[in-house]
Prior knowledge:
The protein contains 19 helices and 6 strands. The chain has helices at 19-25, 28-31, 35-51, 57-76, 88-100, 102-105, 113-148, 169-194, 213-219, 229-234, 237-263, 291-314, 328-352, 357-363, 371-380, 385-402, 411-415, 431-436, 449-482, and strands spanning 154-159, 162-168, 196-197, 224-225, 271-272, 354-355. The strands form 3 sheets. It has a two-stranded antiparallel ribbon.
Amino acid sequence: MGQERKVLWSGRFGQGAADETLAFTSSLMVDKRLARYDILGSLAHARMLTRQGIIAQEDGERIAAGLKELYAKAEEGALEIDPQLEDVHSNIEFLLTSMIEDAGARLHTGRSRNDQVATDLRMWQREAILDTIEAIHTLEHVLMERASDNVDVILPGFTHVQHAQPISLAHHLMAHFHRLARDVERFAECYRRTNISPLGSAALAGTTYNIDRLYTSELLAFKAPCANSLDGVSDRDFVAEYLFAASLCAVHLSSLCEELVYWSSPEFGFVEMDDAYSTGSSIMPQKKNPDVAELIRGRAGATIGDLLNMLVTLKSLPLSYNRDLQEDKAALFAAHDRIVACLRMAAAMVSTVKFNKERMLAATKDGFLNATDLADYLVTRGLPFRKAHEVVGAAVRYCIEQGKRLEELTLEELRSFSDLVEEDVFSILPIERCVLRRMSVGGTSPNVIPMQFSQGMSALQRQSTMFQKERARLQTAYRRLLE
């Protein structure tokens, strides 16, 4: 184990780089979490080199045995990482050659760190996407459960943070569900484009060795090898795409949390946050603050910042590999860790929030939420909608002046605005009827909301099948590599 530690490119230089240069260019503190994938990728590469006769069978077997030993240590958290080496790839190669000497030095035949790190990162991101989808899936499930328990609860629907029309609480919660369902679709598409193998692209131009890229792609459970070696080593679209999907998901979480924050205020009083997901004040004993919701809302900005960081890094890079790309992992890892944690906390928080049904219903009495229904009533009586809109607007102005609600007006008062109004108008003005009558597909009526539940359950089943099946496929491929 007395082998001298050298950077992998030391042969070209007459003297070593300055310590400051080595420290500045080191990515080890970030990329060490790729160790497991680096070893698996190396196992696939070694098996291919042996199968193709590029290295001797004996060397291939020794490499495989050494890599499997290192993998076991990595799984146990016992891998010896040397901070003097610049990245995780150098560390693993050094450890391997320390164990098996020249045989280990043959592993890098036909590959470069350029295609090596791109392969490792895609392997890591595949599992990161599955983790993210699973976390979204959990929150979706919670939202649907809470919605199914609150189909008959009525609250104001808002536009411009102003009372607009009455809706079912279930309908409101399912709106957040559908946002998240689209997030899952985006991550699933990102997975498809991530699942391409750069291994064998070498530095940028491919290699003169008779390698089999289809074989290594299959061993590592990739859909196919990349079609262009220049693109293979330089492409980070998949990273930017994950960061975009994570940013949009974070925006959706922020919107949900924003509502919970102001709904929990005394002015709204629509919800009470569970003690487990609230905090207090160091000076005001009475306070119960929705800090978890606020932090999730706040961390959306950091996720968007990671996306911007990646896009600005990529915008001016010529082909092919540039060291700037070393910065991709810090943004990607941070965004993944943050969004998964936020999703899990949001699911726990939403599952325990208490809805004040009486306060929600009481809030619908103000703001003339049944005004559109009165206009629609006049339309059914033959009045063009634009004229009906004007008539009801005048009726609302009258109510404001008289301190009344539309449903409190007498038939005579209503007919003073339009002689089309009849006694049956009072059957459509109650807030409960306004909600019940919205029977259009995707509407808020309790009679059609179950259709959303059915569609949602189908989506949840597809998602569950997808991430469980894909996770099992990766695990099977890796297990076979390690046999």
